[in-house]
């Protein structure tokens, strides 16, 4: 199988590329700069050059689209919020239009999304049948998925993996927790009662491959990529303290988070109790269903 991947240098993308190649699949990494390696093809992330993107996707059996500005990489200024939105919506629209224009398009498109779609769900468990929530990230996710409509209308099997918090030592929001807890200065955030919908990096990559490798009657539309049982931030704090054998004595009050993170603090303090109903119903098996399993797996990956 030949798979085109955007965002191939990110946390999830790099792990997916390595997994696919280990099993003998051919991976073409779509890059925004000029291609300078045999496995690279330049694409237009602005979505303006449909012909360039069509050329980049020729001969591919599948496409995985993971590119987008990091949600937690910078303080949410108006300019950076535009970058978060535009990097997702325009890039997705550009790929969707290219796919729709092809005479022999790839058979499946896995187009990234996020559990931010649901907004703050409080204590309420939600699956893929839940409506969109409110807030900046919920709005972005709705536009992001809507931008894929040309490919969906063209009959291409399109899947939206709505990603939760990926438990990994390097990269992503969780990657910032490990050094803090190792230093013995970790603690709950706010009141700690907010739910975190997590997933180990191993399970995330396995789920992406599960979606890629299904046949023409495989899953379409939104699929939550989260562990079966979300846990509260208070529970996460206890697990991190226990696994790393460090105290967790320094809670971060909500007002401090708001000063430090600005508008992004609303999402850090918000609660998302999201469950992967469609993955489970389709027969996917999690290797690390619990948060402690996921944290220990991240440390094992580090040791390897």
Key words describing this protein structure:
Rossmann fold; about 300 residues; 8-stranded parallel sheet; about 15% strand; alpha/beta; about 40% helix
Q: In terms of topology, how is this protein built?
A:
Blueprint lengths: L1 E5 L4 H12 L3 E6 L8 E3 L7 H8 L4 E4 L12 H24 L6 E4 L1 E2 L10 E2 L9 H11 L2 H5 L3 E7 L1 E3 L4 H4 L1 H6 L12 E2 L1 E3 H13 L7 E5 L5 E2 H12 L9 H8 L3 H5 L3 E2 L2 H5 L9 H13 L1
Parallel strand pairs: 1-2, 1-4, 2-3, 4-5, 5-8, 6-8, 7-14, 8-12, 9-11
Antiparallel strand pairs: 10-13
Q: Provide mean pLDDT, rounded.
A: 93
Share of residues in helices: 40-55%
| C-alpha-based Rg, rounded | 19 Å
Portion in beta strands: 15-25%
Number of spatially distinct domains? 1
The largest pleated sheet is described as: 8 strands, parallel
Outline the low-pLDDT stretches: none
Number of helices: 13
The shape, in one word, is globular
CATH topology: Rossmann fold
What structural class is derived from the secondary structure elements? alpha/beta
CATH superfamily: NAD(P)-binding Rossmann-like Domain
First-to-last CA distance:
27 Å
What is the N-to-C order of secondary-structure elements (H for helix, E for strand)?
Answer: EHEEHEHEEEHHEEHHEEHEEHHHEHH
Count the beta strands: 14
CATH class: Alpha Beta
Q: Which CATH architecture?
A: 3-Layer(aba) Sandwich
């Amino acid at each position: 199988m030949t798979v085109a991947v955007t965002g191939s240098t990110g946390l999830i993308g790099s792990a997916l590329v390595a997994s696919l190649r280990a099993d003998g699949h051919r991976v073409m990494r779509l890059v925004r700069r000029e291609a300078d390696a045999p496995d690279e093809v330049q694409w237009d992330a602005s979505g303006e050059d449909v012909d360039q993107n069509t050329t980049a996707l020729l001969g591919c059996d599948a496409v995985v689209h993971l590119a987008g500005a990091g949600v937690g990489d910078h303080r949410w200024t108006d300019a950076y919020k535009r970058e978060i939105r535009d990097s997702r919506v325009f890039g997705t629209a550009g790929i969707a239009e290219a796919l729709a224009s092809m005479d022999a398009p790839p058979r499946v498109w896995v187009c990234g999304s996020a559990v931010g779609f649901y907004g703050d769900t409080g204590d309420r468990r939600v699956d893929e049948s839940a409506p969109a929530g409110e807030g900046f990230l919920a709005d972005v996710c709705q536009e992001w998925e809507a931008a894929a409509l040309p490919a969906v209308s063209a009959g291409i099997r399109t899947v939206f993996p709505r990603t939760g918090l990926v438990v990994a030592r390097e990269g992503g929001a969780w990657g910032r927790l490990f050094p803090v807890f190792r230093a013995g200065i970790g603690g709950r955030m706010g009141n700690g009662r907010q739910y975190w919908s997590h997933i180990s990096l191993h399970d995330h990559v396995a789920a992406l491959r599960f979606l890629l490798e299904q046949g023409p009657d495989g899953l379409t539309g939104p699929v939550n990529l989260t562990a079966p049982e979300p846990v509260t931030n208070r529970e996460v704090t206890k697990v991190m303290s226990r696994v790393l054998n460090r105290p967790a004595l320094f809670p971060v009050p909500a007002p401090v988070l708001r000063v430090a993170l600005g508008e992004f603090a609303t999402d850090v303090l918000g609660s998302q109790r999201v469950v992967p109903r469609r993955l489970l119903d389709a027969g996917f098996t999690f290797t690390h269903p619990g948060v402690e399993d996921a944290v220990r797996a991240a440390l094992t990956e580090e040791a390897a």
